[in-house]
Specification:
Layout: E1 8-14, H1 20-36, E2 40-46, H2 51-61, E3 65-68, H3 79-86, H4 96-103, H5 105-114, E4 122-126, E5 139-143, E6 153-155, H6 161-169, E7 174-179, E8 184-191, E9 194-203, H7 210-213, E10 219-222, H8 229-245, E11 251-258, E12 264-270, H9 280-287, H10 292-313
Parallel strand pairs: 1-2, 1-3
Antiparallel strand pairs: 4-7, 5-6, 5-7, 8-9, 8-11, 9-10, 11-12
Helix pairs in contact: 1-10
């Protein structure tokens, strides 16, 4: 811990995406955890995506390392990571290339398929394409490049089909339409490239959308998930493989649907999971005996350890 106290840590939060408010909550929680451990940390609002302006903001704070609590655009898409790389500032989480792969659901799913990682069958629809008919319902409609389930719809009835597609197109010019996997909704936290525990998500109404994720009393979590030991192991292993396949590092959270046969289908890898009181990576870690403050410290330690390794190569 003494080494960490020698660093000034900037907790990057806010951002320019639709997840700005959530990012502030994640950032504040992370910063408070660092301060409770005696670390010199401060919150930094990244309120622009202008590269030069962001560089000036970072340089004005004279930080030694960055704890990234930015979600969505200019947080998880590799661009803030590229800025930090250019300034030679070490940071938590995946590098720029892996962040881009994880953020782009089309690229992610292509990689999963190539690596024989189960993922729901899907097709891509561009905004300029004619809208196809609602065949094979239920289907999941989602923007290819967003987070926190913004613009995601599960369509059971044909009357909701076109409206859901048009709403999703308000987020991105391309959307993914994939099979809905009936079964359990699960998530697995990854820390230090190893899976933590499996958490089952049970929404009380509808599905685990943006409102349910960040509101009290709208969802139940079972941690650890009550699964057959083989199903539990399968969820853990497929999550590890998904994390590795995208080239992620330090930590992530992998979202899964497990069907009635025990097959875990990977939906996506979240390279910068939420760190609010409702968030799932901290819950997955807690099952393993890692309390929130310790989780934040380990995330930072992984970043600084990675920086030392990179410098030793030079």
């Amino acid at each position: 811990m003494s080494d960490l106290k020698d660093y000034k840590i900037g907790v990057l939060e806010g951002g320019v995406s639709g997840e700005r408010d959530i990012s502030f909550v994640s950032g504040k929680e992370a910063c408070l955890a660092l301060k409770r451990k005696g670390i010199n940390a401060e919150e930094i609002d990244i309120n622009t995506q202008d590269i030069q302006a962001v560089k000036e903001i970072l340089l004005s704070h004279s930080i030694d390392a960055a704890f990234i609590a930015l979600h969505g655009e200019f947080g998880e898409d590799g661009r803030i990571q590229e800025v930090l790389d250019a300034l030679d500032i070490p940071y938590t989480g995946s590098g720029a290339a892996a962040s881009r792969r994880a953020m782009d659901k089309i690229i992610s799913k292509d990689i999963f398929v190539k690596n024989n990682i189960p993922t729901p069958n899907y097709f891509v629809l561009n905004k300029s394409d004619p809208i196809p008919g609602p065949e094979g319902l239920p289907k999941v409609i989602k923007p290819y490049y967003s987070g926190s389930s913004i613009g995601v719809f599960i369509v059971y009835d044909g009357k909701d089909w076109e409206r859901s597609i048009l709403e999703s197109f308000k987020i991105n010019e391309k959307i993914i339409i994939e099979d809905y996997i009936r079964g359990k909704e699960l998530t697995v936290g990854i820390l230090g490239e190893k899976p933590l525990s499996v958490v089952e998500i049970i929404p009380k109404h509808g599905y685990f959308n943006f409102t349910a994720k960040y509101s009290d009393g709208m969802v139940d979590f079972i941690a650890p998930a009550l699964l057959d030991i083989n199903d539990y192991s399968a969820a853990m292993e497929v999550s590890r493989r998904a994390h590795v396949s995208l080239g992620c590092r330090h930590f992530s959270r992998v979202d899964i649907r497990m069907d009635d046969k025990g097959t875990p289908f990977v939906l996506e890898v979240n390279s910068i999971p939420g760190l609010t009181s409702h968030s799932l990576l901290p819950l997955s870690a807690k099952v393993c005996g890692i309390e929130f403050d310790e989780l934040i410290i380990r995330m930072l330690q992984l970043a600084l350890r990675n920086e030392k390794k990179e410098k030793q190569k030079i």
